Amino acid sequence: MIGSVSIPTTIACVDLRTAVTERARVEGNLVLVDEFLNHRVEPGVIDSVGKSLAVAFADLEPDMILTAEASGIPPALACSRELGIPMVYAKKYLGTGDRYSFAREVTSPTKGVEYRVEVARRVLPAGLKLIIVDDFLARGRTAEALGEIATEAGCDLLGFGFALEKGWQGGRERLERHGWVVHSVVELLAIEGSTVVLKDQG
Is-contact 132 161, C-beta < 8 A? Predict the structure, then answer.
């Protein structure tokens, strides 16, 4: 026990779909899951995401997972632990740099800024069988940049895995135009008032 907070000795997996249904908040066109997935991260939820993504890609026998800081790290790490493979995350920088890296410029529609995603060349050698994992797929700009980095590095890009997908924002179409495979644990179909409509499982 720390102060008055009791720390559980075991963490039960919490299905992401259930967590979104019961706890996601809607603010305008934003679906906020920052109380359990990508700001405050609950082990039970992120473990379930990692297991789902691992099941989706295990048969392809990936060598490594690529993601972007910061909110991509928890689902990517959870998946890497399930698969028993390393994870590398692209760092984000404002402005240009002279680092020896693979890099792409990305404009964030939610934050209104342009930044660079970079991966040091020494940690992304050619020939790796790679999957890209992130928390959210919306318009797909960061994911596309990571896919281009993986391709430039000479990796075999097996596909993309996301915890959540906002199906109405075109990210899947952006990635599939490259011929890339996309898997999402939970797909959000629409926002109706203060409610998020989820795609049926199956």
Answer: yes
The C-alpha atoms of residue 157 and residue 161 are separated, in whole angstroms, by 12
How many structural domains is the chain composed of?
1
pTM, rounded to two decimals? 0.90
Tell me the residue type at 63: D
CA distances to 19, 37, 106, 191 from 92, rounded to whole Å, are 29, 20, 10, 30
Q: Which residue has the tokens 């209104």?
A: 112
Residue 182 lies in a domain: yes
Give the pLDDT score at 159.
98
Q: How far is CA 97 from CA 103, 117, 154, in A?
A: 10, 11, 22
Domain of 132 in residue numbering reads as: 16-89+123-198
pLDDT at residue 96, rounded to an integer: 67
Closest by Cα among 40, 46, 41, 50 to 131: 50
Q: Which residues of the chain have pLDDT under 70?
A: 1-11, 95-98, 108-112, 202
Q: Which two tokens stand for residue 42?
A: 């609950």
